[in-house]
Design the sequence.
């Protein structure tokens, strides 16, 4: 569904419309008040990943990072358990009649079908060396569960569910981590061999994610100077162009401005 494009160009119009439609779907189904009042642009820094547990190693580090991801996603009240990626199987989440109270300090917990009454969360220990990829992986699994509770079908249906839930993760504030970890790089150790760096599985390109991030920052009125220091340099030019493109789409932005009363 999503097209390829040159680095110097913006996305095709179909993809841009899909990204705006996905934001509209997320705002209708997942607490527009939480989005506008409470959702942060999470940065991969000590500003957002500090506190008790900072500096831990191994599984303790993984659990500390996940606790922060849950908090910023507005899902800190959801019971979750990290599960090794090799044995991870997502569970069924009951679709709710009302989803406006799932996130935030007063959020409810959806009905789940799991023996331990917890949400299993995919955890790849190999990602501990790439915290941004680990954060994105956690957020993506949470987005899968949250998205499954929606009353309304997502734009384009569920055919592109992994892509849609990546956008939902950006909507929850994790766009920087998704953009910065969208590629699998390689380390060349000799002329005849190379070793892949462990990274998360990405479904949207870095440019599609950056455009989704631009929608987020324009809606939240976050200036470029608060974003680019945490975005990898190769994406700065595209991001600034995306912000300009989003800003000029007055009607699309007006349609998304579902701000809470009061």
Sequence:
């Amino acid at each position: 569904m999503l097209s390829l494009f040159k680095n110097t160009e913006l996305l095709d119009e179909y993809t841009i419309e899909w990204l705006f439609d996905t934001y509209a779907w997320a705002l209708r189904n997942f607490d527009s008040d939480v989005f506008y009042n409470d959702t942060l642009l999470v940065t991969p820094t000590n500003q957002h990943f500090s506190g008790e547990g900072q500096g831990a190693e191994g599984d303790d580090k993984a659990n500390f990072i996940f606790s922060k991801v849950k908090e910023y996603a507005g899902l800190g009240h959801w019971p979750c358990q990290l599960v090794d990626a090799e044995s991870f199987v997502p569970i069924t989440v009951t679709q709710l009649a009302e989803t406006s109270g799932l996130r935030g300090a007063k959020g409810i917990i959806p009905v789940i079908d799991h023996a331990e009454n917890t949400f299993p969360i995919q955890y790849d220990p190999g990602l501990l060396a790439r915290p941004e990829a680990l954060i994105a992986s956690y957020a993506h699994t949470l987005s899968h569960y949250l998205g499954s509770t929606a009353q309304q079908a997502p734009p384009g249906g569920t055919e592109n569910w992994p892509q849609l839930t990546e956008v939902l993760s950006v909507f929850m504030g994790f766009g920087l981590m998704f953009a910065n970890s969208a590629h699998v790089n390689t380390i060349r150790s000799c002329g005849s061999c190379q070793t892949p760096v462990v990274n998360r599985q990405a479904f949207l390109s870095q440019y599609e994610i950056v455009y989704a991030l631009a929608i987020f920052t324009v809606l939240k009125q976050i200036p470029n100077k608060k974003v680019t220091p945490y975005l990898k340099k190769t994406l700065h030019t595209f991001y600034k162009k995306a912000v300009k493109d989003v800003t000029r789409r007055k009607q699309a932005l007006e349609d998304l401005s579902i701000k809470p009363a009061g």
About this structure: Confidence is low (pLDDT under 50) at residues 3-8, 184-198.
